[in-house]
TrEMBL record:
Pfam family, one: SbsC_C
Protein name as annotated: SbsC C-terminal domain-containing protein
Residues spanning the signal sequence: 1-24
Location of the SbsC C-terminal domain: 20-95
Source organism (scientific name): Metabacillus endolithicus
InterPro entries per the UniProt record, alphabetical: Immunoprotect_excell_Ig-like, S-layer_SbsC_C
Protein origin, superkingdom: Bacteria
Lineage: Bacteria, Bacillati, Bacillota, Bacilli, Bacillales
Keyword tags: Signal
Length: 326
């Protein structure tokens, strides 16, 4: 019986020693990682104080991973008081440093995304993300005030402002650029330049000078030639007069004709039905040489309740859009 009790005591002592050894090992591992994190915190704070947002961004993810790794190690340490002490010593100051810049890093990264969208001509996405950017800026100010965080060097915000300024310039340019969502109106002259395999180098001005639709357009169509057809049921004619001035031309002459233009519905559907109207004067169709200017009518047939657009050279580099609703 004594042997059994002695044996059990020996096992208990061994287990206790093993547990204590494991606990000590966990604490040591956590403390060692904490010291590594402390060193990296010093480096991260130095980077923050430099005010270089690009360098802050470069270190941010690695520093965040070190925080997570140290937190996991501390979570394995026995004793709440031990864990609390380690968290206060290592984790809390590291998180404060990270939280000082979290919204600035988010702004910097979002602006990279916006620039990528602008490069890809994804203007809608860029505009949507720009709205998010302004919310992040507001949140950055609020979080600093609420948390009592130390203010960042002015260079950080100056760097972000500089990047944002470039984005604003690009957005303004693209938002104001002629497109289906931003078509030219009557009297607005567009300067267009292109180089392609078909026409070579061409530079010209194009302007929508007049639009007539509905009954008035039908009257002009019938006056132009009595044999011109009336529009199909539920449809209407739209007559659009364009002025084109050829400024530079590599391959002469430059052919302008009705096929250069297509009508597109307000909902974005292209009207593909071919129509022909004879006798409208002046007619748009012409061969133009460098220095020439010509003004003439072209025509479309669209749904009677539609508010259509006209697109010139759809799908080519010199594609331009006009509002032909009136």
């Amino acid at each position: 019986m004594k042997k059994i009790i002695l044996s059990m005591f020996t096992v208990l002592v061994a287990l206790t020693l093993t547990v204590n050894t494991a606990s000590a090992s966990s604490y040591t591992d956590a403390a060692n990682l904490g010291e590594v994190l402390k060193t990296k915190l010093s480096s991260f704070n130095s980077t923050i104080n430099s005010g270089d947002i690009s360098s802050i961004d470069d270190q941010y993810d690695s520093f965040s991973n070190d925080i997570k790794k140290t937190e996991r190690a501390i979570g394995k340490v026995s004793g709440k008081s031990n864990r609390d002490a380690l968290n206060i010593k290592y984790i809390k100051p590291a998180k404060i440093a990270r939280e000082r810049v979290i919204y600035e890093v988010s702004q910097y990264r979002l602006m990279k995304v916006i620039n990528d969208s602008l490069t890809a001509n994804k203007v809608d996405k860029a505009n949507s993300d720009f709205a998010k950017l302004e919310r992040l800026e507001k949140r950055a100010v609020e979080i600093k005030e609420a948390g009592g965080y130390e203010q960042l060097p002015a260079k950080v915000n100056n760097g972000l402002s500089s990047i944002k300024s470039d984005i604003v310039d690009k957005l303004n340019e693209l938002n104001n650029k002629n497109s289906r969502k931003n078509p030219a109106e009557i009297g607005e002259t567009l300067l267009v330049e292109k180089d392609d395999w078909l026409d070579g180098h061409v530079k010209y001005e194009i302007e929508l000078t007049d639009v007539i639709s509905g009954d008035e357009a039908l009257t002009l169509v019938k006056e132009a030639n009595m044999y011109n057809n009336s529009p199909d049921a539920g449809m209407k004619y739209v007559l659009a007069k364009f002025r084109i001035s050829v400024l530079e031309l590599e391959k002469e002459p430059y052919d302008i004709n009705h096929a250069n233009f297509k009508a597109v519905s307000g909902s974005g559907v292209t009207y593909d039905d071919w129509i022909s109207i004879a006798g409208l004067e002046p007619d748009l169709r012409n061969d133009l040489y460098e220095g020439a200017e010509h003004e003439g009518w072209t025509y479309f047939m669209v749904d009677e309740n539609d508010e259509p657009l006209a697109v010139f050279n759809q799908g080519w580099d010199d594609e331009v859009w006009f509002n032909i609703s009136n």
